[in-house]
TrEMBL record:
InterPro entries: HTH_LacI (IPR000843), LacI/GalR-like_sensor (IPR046335), Lambda_DNA-bd_dom_sf (IPR010982), Peripla_BP_I (IPR028082). The keyword DNA-binding applies. PROSITE patterns: HTH_LACI_2. It holds the Pfam family Peripla_BP_3. Keywords: DNA-binding, Transcription, Transcription regulation. The keyword Cytoplasm does not apply. Gene3D superfamilies: 3.40.50.2300, lambda repressor-like DNA-binding domains. It comes from Microtetraspora glauca. Transmembrane segments: none annotated. This is LacI family DNA-binding transcriptional regulator.
Length: 339
């Protein structure tokens, strides 16, 4: 066994320097990617690292670079929502796949009320992370502005209401909703309702606007109830719509989860889908394939959204200029039996 790799001993930076025949500072510069090292010295250090099996200490590296190699994902929803609803799983998958190529670590945090947000702000601005991803931002949430003001690189998933962040990734929610409602009109449906999302979120506002765009030119009156994107809220909204508009013949729900809740209520009332009421959701999640009948839905590239968020954030952390700090991803309608 090599004398520099004693049983149970972890190789040190000093050992690498001695093996390479350079100073400790040169080893630090190589590890941290500094260009101020000769090619000969760099090769010697890298060979010594390989020979000794040296693993740089993350905490020590942070002292040198002022970087933690960690980013936070903040979701302003309950733990149950995050782990139950397909949207969040897709976002996290996309973020994870993009991060695997960077060496950055991810911490997932949830904050619903002001006290939780205040505690989280203290942590995020205390040099514990290099940058922050936020999704499911509600209108009253000032965390994005406060992070930017404190110099923490931040990228949002979804356009918030009431502020214009420097960088965010979103779906073309308005166009997707417009396409769904126009499709229902093209099928001869004339009493089309919508279950809209929360109006303190850009996604909720935009999907309702798309529905209204489609109906505007027809003179057909709108039929609107509101949910929070969850299945339970979709069921409650569907009951409300049937009480107010018992003759409705189509429903566009602003999420697949709300569409599933609506579907349960329609079946309980003895209404056939799509015979009596055509039904369209938004997301094209795996759930849409397993409803009875399978759910027509607007496809949104959720994993791509997560990947784009990471790409923008890494560029901001590295100080790279962003040619497109705002990215809008295309949506399209996937037609199945429910409509």
């Amino acid at each position: 066994m090599n004398g520099d790799r004693r049983q149970g001993a972890r190789p040190t930076l000093e050992a690498v320097a001695a093996r390479a025949g350079v100073g400790r500072g040169t080893v630090s510069r190589v590890i941290n990617g500094s260009p101020k090292v000769s090619e000969k010295a760099r090769d010697a250090v890298l060979l010594a690292i390989k020979d000794l099996g040296y693993v740089p200490n993350r905490a020590a590296r942070a002292l040198v670079t002022n970087r933690t190699d960690t980013i936070a994902l903040v979701v302003s929803e309950s733990e149950q929502r995050i782990f139950d609803e397909p949207f969040f799983a897709g976002i996290i998958r996309g973020i994870g796949s993009a991060l695997s190529e960077t060496g950055l670590q991810l911490i997932l945090t949830m904050a619903q009320n002001r006290a939780e947000h205040d505690r989280l702000e203290d942590y995020l601005t205390g040099q514990h992370v290099d940058g922050v991803l936020l999704t499911s931002v509600h209108g009253a949430d000032t965390l994005p502005e406060r992070l930017e003001a404190m110099g923490v690189p931040t990228v949002l998933g979804g356009r918030p209401v009431g502020l214009t962040p420097y960088s965010y990734v979103d779906m073309d929610n308005r166009a997707g909703a417009r396409q769904a409602a126009k499709y229902l009109l093209g099928k001869g449906r004339s009493r089309i309702a919508t279950i809209a999302g929360p109006q303190d979120m850009g996604v909720g506002v935009d999907r309702l606007a798309g529905y209204r765009d489609a109906l505007l030119a027809t003179g057909i009156g709108e039929r609107v109830a509101y949910g929070d994107f969850s299945e339970a809220s979709g069921a409650t909204a569907m009951q409300e719509l049937l009480e107010r508009h018992p003759d409705l013949d189509a429903v566009f729900a602003a999420s697949d989860a709300m569409a599933v809740g609506a579907l349960h209520v329609l079946k309980e009332r003895g209404l056939s889908v799509p015979g009596d009421v055509a039904l369209i959701g938004f997301e094209d999640s795996r759930v849409a394939l397993h409803t009875e009948p399978p759910l027509t839905s607007v496809h949104q590239p959720t994993e791509a959204m997560g990947r784009q968020m990471v790409q923008l954030l890494v560029a901001r952390i590295n100080g790279d200029p962003l040619e497109q700090p705002v990215v809008i991803l295309d949506t399209h309608l996937v037609i199945r039996a429910s409509a």
